[in-house]
Amino acid sequence: MKKRTFSCIVKSATTTTIERGPLMKDIISALTMKELEQITYRALQESFSQVMAQTLQEIDEAIASERDKQRFYLKDKRTLKFESVFGQVELKRNYYQDKETGKYVYLLDQYLAFDGTKGMSPVVQDLAIELAVTGVSYRQAGKAMEKLLGYPVISHEGIRQQLLNTEVVPEESVPLEQDVVFVEVDGLYTKSQEKKKKGKEIKIASVHQGWEMNGKRAKLIEKRHFIHEGNLPFWEEFEQYLMATYEYDPTRHHLVINGDGAKWITSCRDHFQHNATFVIDRFHVARDVQRLFRGHSRYRSIRKKLASYDWEGFMVELNSAVGTLENEKKEERLEELIAQLSQYPEALGDYREKLKERGIDTTGFRPMGSAEGTMSVFARRLKNGRSWSDKGLDKFIDIMVALKDNLEIKTLQGILEQTQELIQESKEEKPPKHFVEKLKESAAEATRNNLGYLKQAIGKPITDALKGLRGI
């Protein structure tokens, strides 16, 4: 009796050659598309786990036959069990004693740059860390992986420990293409896990070299993030970062610094003096103006002065509005705003005009103001009721910045590769043809007879075959 293939069954079920009747009704009622997809996916996971185990065993055997037998003594075989994107993989691998060092090693692990004692594959580890940093929380990252892979892979505490055991590799200096460097600065307050300890303000600067247009959208050039973690004053440590990262020369390069009126931010004027132009963050000023004057008769004219960079006219409008708000708290806030902006009213002007006066070409320069967007990205992950230990917070921010800036990250399993990089590399670099063919053959062998209804006789009702899938 001939066997029918899966493709034949599906094809025949979707053509008009099957008569509508009890058989078709049984097919429709027996299994939903969602169930069929889930069952098939689980079956393929199991099959590919077998392929992975078989491939690893063959590599281990090749290593054993070609090793330096005078140096590496084959002691015995020991179990390797780890979680992968296919599911759990288990096999026996060779365990050796290195006669030169006296240590016991797994040559398979060494050849593949993989630590089998950690219980997970490098891809699973990288995915866990990336989801934890770019997602909502460690717990949600664990749940997301469980939903994606179909089984609980790693706990939220396991993900946290993986992240704590990472290290960011400092990058080589980035050359500066022009004499102007753009800096957006802001602070973010985080809570401490210790009850009697105050929270911590994270001082963040994003640095870039200008803008490039992609259609109507502007992209920041060579954007990097600096987190103040040392004991030196912010701007002193930031200047050292610039010298190490951007080949910054204080005698040549000019900084355009955008931030709110916090004292630690405005102190950049004293630190850099004529080598920097401070720009007050217009988002915060516009927000204060809206809160104070919305519905007020002067609101429109004040907004126009601010939007046109007429800082003198803007300050006149603010001062002339004193006493017209009819709200004591708003009057107090207005006086505070005037006192704050009066320290550096020129910071409300267009920085490009100031650079032109210095003889700097400002072609392609755009208004500053990406600090708030940068802080919102960090705030979504660091705030929202979360509290942190000092060690956990510092490490998390380091990895978050490294992922954003595409820096190299060392993990327990080697070098972390981000998802998009893996996708790009898979397009650019292909493994050896003979290796791909070998895996295809192994996959075909492993999946053969693995789905219940592939072994059904042609006369057997299709519904019984589909119901058999439920038992996999």
From TrEMBL:
InterPro entries associated with the record: UPF0236
Keywords carried by this UniProt record: Coiled coil
Coiled coil feature spans: 315-347
Transmembrane segments: none
Protein origin, superkingdom: Bacteria
Recorded family membership: Belongs to the UPF0236 family.
Protein name: ISLre2 family transposase
